[in-house]
Design a protein that fits this description.
Layout lengths: L2 E6 L6 E6 L3 E5 L10 E6 L3 E8 L3 E4 L5 E2 L5 E6 L9 E8 L8 E15 L27 E3 L30 E8 L8 E6 L8 E6 L9 E5 L5 E3 L7 E8 L10 E10 L8 E12 L3 E2 L6 E7 L5 H14 L2 E5 L1 H4 L5 H4 E8 L2 E8 L9 H6 L5 E4 L16 E3 L3 E3 L2 E3 L4 E5 L11 H9 L6 E4 L12 E5 L6 E7 H13 L6 E2 L12 E2 H5 L2 H25 L6 E5 L2 E4 L2 E4 L8 E3 L2 E5 L5 E2 L2 E2 H10 L5 E5 L16 E5 L12
Parallel strand pairs: 1-3, 2-10, 11-19, 21-22, 24-25, 29-30, 32-35, 39-42
Antiparallel strand pairs: 3-8, 4-7, 4-9, 5-6, 5-8, 9-10, 10-12, 12-17, 13-16, 13-18, 14-15, 14-17, 18-19, 20-23, 21-43, 23-24, 26-29, 27-28, 31-32, 33-34, 36-37, 38-39, 40-41
Family: Belongs to the protein arginine deiminase family.
Protein name: Protein-arginine deiminase
InterPro entries: Cupredoxin, PAD, PAD_C, PAD_central_sf, PAD_N, PAD_N_sf, Prot_Arg_deaminase_cen_dom
Length: about 675
């Protein structure tokens, strides 16, 4: 129980006070004391608990056990636990005594009206311990924690509206309420009390920027019943008692956590005493609840797929057909963005990242629209945003966007444990430059957004050595049927040279790369012997390997990986304007749909009728129970410095782990 306020009693006339159920009221008896007072007694009517606190060391005792020596250090504490039926239907009586007088010197009476006021919401989230008594003013992480959760209402439930649901101050359809958190004001006590007392729901001007509150002012099956009462320019609201003892409010988040917003919001209900015409209102009691806005969460490639996205462009019909067949095998939906919408922009991985938000009452996917703004820039907002599918973006206002701001440069690991700390939702991986260098970096607004979500702390990798500059050019994750649950695949020039040297040793040095490539432009074939005698290619790939090795050590340290968790996939790179691009289709840039892998067809050396690169990849991955399908992306993607992963995107199942059970 928390201390409420001090009430002073008077000998001249009875005093009245309002107390709140379960909340302590401190009674001051020292302001008006009869001369000669040495002792006092204090009693209350049934339902009034009175305690005396002689000192901090001795604690409190029940007041009605004996007569007390008058001492200005004593505190009288009154508590009522049940609301009153009528005004002033309970009281406390204090009698003042002297050892020289047989009768009390005087009496003071304090009349009490008890009202029960609580501002409630769902504090004990799914998977947490049930806690009946928690401090609603706090929000605590972990399975033993507590606190209410608020979703950013960033979907569009009414298709007749152009904007997201949280962009205006109206409820356009009842389904919109399902994305909001319910906050309930419960009041019990004499109705007459509210003739001269007011209930004010309020928040700070800072918190009002990030959330909006609607009050159900009529029948809850009508959109017109929901009145916008708090948020943005509204910081307080006098609560009318439309429904007697219980008023329901619906709260929507307006923004995700970010550099200027921690994600925490507070709402308060205050009971004001307006009974004295000669004085201004005085506060009696305030109750507070705290919400945390749910973070945007990424899904790693090891989670089960639900829906695959791909663009149909001028020259990729066979590619789209191959992706469609892979999606069919994996049992997931396929969505094709037509050419009149993508305007020949095929890089759907770069345009957006598909994640989700979650609260105990609702989970829905949210697309994060990248700031690259190519010809696909309208697709996430116009085609993906909809009922129970949210949208968020971050656009830099004062800086240029680089290739690193495309979301092929935004990945997330599976769950890991590193340096003694658990990351049950994995860690975000973004690419940038080396410490202290002046190369390309992800724009600050995107970095701020990713770091502010807190549940998937980012790891920054070195990608500025790549011409495109994306993490998906040299790494990916595939599921594995063991305790670890996954393997990390890394592109490896060393593994490729080793493979080619073995084939050369066995007399296959004349086997050719790029045989069978079909496209608008002829592609020159290259033999294994030519590759292994190309000093510039070898030297450049030693540099590439050193860059990948740098990242390898960072990933081992930050994700808690060992060499057993890493599979080296043979891959070579070539130089273009002093940066690296894939020499043959980039094998790690794959589409992962459960056990089904859509891997760029490398057009490697044909030995005994089979591509030795494909055979090597199968030998590395099929023992994990994975099925390798090699997709020809050479002309429509590889020639444009992208591959299968770059040209596809996947919506996946959310984690079974609830984010509020972790401790950042």
């Amino acid at each position: 129980m928390s201390l409420q306020r001090i009430v002073r009693v008077s000998l001249e006339h009875p005093t009245s006070a309002v107390c709140v159920a379960g909340v302590e009221t401190l009674v001051d008896i020292y302001g008006s004391v009869p001369e000669g007072t040495e002792m006092f007694e204090v009693y209350g009517t049934p339902g009034v608990d009175i305690y005396i606190s002689p000192s901090v060391e001795r604690g409190r005792e029940r007041a009605d056990t004996r007569r007390w020596h008058f001492d200005t250090g004593l505190e009288i504490i009154v508590v009522m636990n049940s609301p009153s039926n009528d005004l002033n239907d309970s009281h406390v009586q204090i009698s003042y005594h002297s050892s020289h007088e047989p009768l009390p010197l005087a009496y003071a009476v304090l009349y009490l009206t008890c009202v029960d006021i609580a501002l409630d919401c769902d504090l004990n989230c799914e998977g947490r311990q049930n806690r009946s008594f928690v401090d609603k003013r706090d929000w605590v992480w972990g399975p033993g924690g507590y606190g209410a959760i608020l979703l950013v209402n960033c979907d569009r439930d009414n298709l007749n509206c152009y904007d997201q649901d949280n962009r205006d101050q109206q409820v356009h359809c009842l389904q919109d309420l399902e994305d909001m958190s319910v906050m309930v004001l419960r009041t019990q006590g004499p109705a007459a009390l509210f003739d001269d007392h007011r209930l004010i729901l309020h928040t700070s001007s800072y918190d009002a920027k990030w959330a909006r509150v609607f009050h159900a002012c009529g029948p809850e099956d009508s959109c017109e019943a929901y009145r916008h009462v708090l948020g943005q320019d509204k910081v307080s609201y006098e609560v009318p008692r439309f429904h007697g003892d219980e008023e329901r409010f619906f709260v929507e988040g307006l923004s995700f956590p970010d550099a200027r917003f921690t994600g925490l919001l507070s709402f308060h209900i205050t009971l004001l005493d307006d009974s004295n015409e000669d004085f201004s209102e005085s506060p009696i009691f305030t109750d507070t609840v705290v919400f945390r806005v749910a973070p945007w969460i990424m899904t790693p490639s090891t989670l089960p797929p639900l829906e695959v996205y791909v663009c149909r462009v001028r020259n990729n019909t066979c590619f789209v057909d191959a992706v469609a067949e892979l999606a069919r095998k994996a049992g997931c939906k396929l969505t094709i963005c037509p050419q009149d919408e993508n305007r020949n922009d095929r890089w759907i991985q770069d345009e957006m990242e598909l994640g989700y938000v979650q609260a105990p009452h609702k989970t829905f996917p949210v697309v994060f629209d990248s700031p690259r703004n190519g010809e696909l820039q309208d697709f996430p907002y116009k085609r993906i945003l909809g009922p129970d599918f949210g949208y968020v973006t971050r656009e830099p206002l004062d800086s240029a966007v680089s290739g690193l701001d495309s979301f092929g440069n935004l990945e997330v690991s599976p769950p890991v444990v590193a340096n003694g700390k658990e990351y049950p939702l994995g860690r975000i991986l973004i690419g940038g430059n080396l410490p202290g260098s002046s190369g390309r970096r992800v724009t600050q607004v995107v970095r701020d957004f990713l770091y502010a979500q807190r549940v998937q702390p980012p790891v920054e990798l070195f990608v500025d050595w790549l011409a495109v500059g994306h993490v998906d050019e040299f790494l990916s994750f595939v599921p594995a049927p063991d305790e670890k649950g996954f393997r990390m695949l890394l592109a490896s020039p060393s593994a490729c040279f080793k493979l080619f040297q073995e084939k050369q040793k066995w007399g296959h040095g004349r086997a050719l790369l790029f045989q069978g490539v079909v496209g608008d432009k002829p592609v020159n074939t290259v033999s294994i012997n030519q590759v292994l005698s190309n000093a510039n290619l070898i030297s450049f790939n030693k540099f590439v390997q050193s860059c990948i090795d740098w990242n390898r050590e960072v990933l081992k340290r930050e994700l808690g990986l060992t060499e057993r968790d890493i599979i080296d996939i043979p891959q070579l790179f070539k130089t273009e304007r002093r940066k690296a691009v894939a020499f043959f289709p980039d094998l790690v840039n794959m589409l992962v749909l459960g056990k089904h892998l859509g891997i760029p067809k490398p057009f490697g050396p044909i030995i005994n009728g089979r591509c030795c690169l494909e055979e090597k990849v199968r030998a590395l991955l099929e023992p994990l129970g994975l099925h390798c399908t090699f997709i020809d992306d050479f002309t429509p993607y590889h020639m444009l410095h992208g591959e299968v992963h770059c040209g596809t995107n996947v919506r996946r199942q959310p984690f079974s782990f609830k984010w509020w059970n972790m401790v950042p």
